[in-house]
Design brief:
alpha/beta; Aminopeptidase; 8 helices; Peptidase_M14; M14 family metallocarboxypeptidase
């Protein structure tokens, strides 16, 4: 997210003019059509690609797609995978696509899948956490949401009338959280910004209202074969939250209106990859997202 100079008056929340100033700092830096849509058009025939909407900023440039199991069977449990709620978190988007390309086939006999690889394509192109309204889609998953990214995703999933067993929401924690996003958030809301420790490694966020310790542990164990797991800081925390077990913290996802909280799936995980680590390559970050899904699915199969 480009936030090259402060916007507004310190201590005073932004109005429309300040949001317009912030938006003027943003620019397209990569292609959603080339890096996302072109890949989705070449996914395995065992998935059907459906356009479920388009972003109002430019409906031709930002169509929204879901990949759904072609051989849908109502007696199978359904798995939801979401990526790119924060568009700048690259491995979440590419990990969802990679799972469709390379990881899903082994599980199609056991599960139905709904995969929304890039919920925020404007954010993907501008490498941004927010949308053009200076709204965070991942704090906007509630009825009548003002964020079209969140509202259209929720509407599509609800129309599937599927009983979801699990939801994998693929994210990253990056150095720009401290250098760009959190300063912008503080300015937007008229508050102050305090740096938090960016964890070096992968971790997950469970839902404090429906914790699944063994499920999260299976995700962590699978990812550990690909990249390193984030340690707790000197206070026993990751991004300010208590570590519940190795590499796992809890959030109240519904209270915060997070993507991971909008369904009733009993198994939910938000993955967090650290792409700025000197110990991880971009491909490892993508592979970690795929491994997270595979680890969780393996656990679900073991419970049958």
């Amino acid at each position: 997210m480009a936030y090259t100079q402060p916007v507004g008056t310190p201590g005073k929340p932004w109005g429309d003019s300040e949001k317009a100033q912030w938006l003027a700092q943003q620019s397209v830096q990569r292609s959603y059509a080339d890096e996302v849509v072109a890949k989705l058009r070449n996914i395995d025939a065992r998935f059907t690609l459906e356009q479920y909407g388009a972003l109002p900023y430019d409906t031709a440039r930002y169509p929204l797609y879901a990949a759904k199991s072609s051989n849908w069977q109502s007696d199978k449990p359904t798995i939801l995978v979401t990526g790119g709620v924060h568009g700048y978190e690259t491995s979440g988007v590419q990990g969802a696509i990679g799972f469709l390309q390379f990881g899903a086939n082994a599980y199609l006999a056991d599960f139905n899948f709904i995969v929304l690889p890039c919920i925020s394509p404007w954010g993907y192109e501008t490498i941004n956490r927010w949308n053009p309204y200076a709204l965070d889609p991942n704090r906007s998953f509630y009825p009548n949401s003002p964020a079209p990214e969140s509202e259209q995703a929720m509407t599509y999933v609800a129309k599937q009338a599927a009983k979801l067993l699990a939801h994998f929401d693929l994210h990253e924690t990056t150095d720009t959280d401290n250098t760009e996003f959190r300063p912008a958030l503080a300015d937007r809301d008229g508050t102050t910004h305090d740096n938090w420790n960016i964890p070096d490694g992968f971790y997950t966020v469970d839902d404090s209202n429906r914790p699944q310790d063994k499920f999260q542990a299976a995700v962590i164990a699978s990812v550990a074969n690909v990249t390193h797991i984030a340690p707790a800081d000197e206070h026993g925390k990751i991004i300010g939250a208590d570590v519940q077990q190795k590499g796992v913290i809890h959030y109240d996802k519904r209270k915060l209106f997070l993507c991971g909280g909008f369904t009733d799936a009993p198994y939910v995980t938000t993955t967090e990859v650290y792409p700025d680590s000197p110990k991880a390559t971009p491909q490892q970050c993508i592979d970690a997202q795929i491994a997270a899904i595979q680890g969780g699915l393996g656990h679900l199969l073991s419970q049958r």
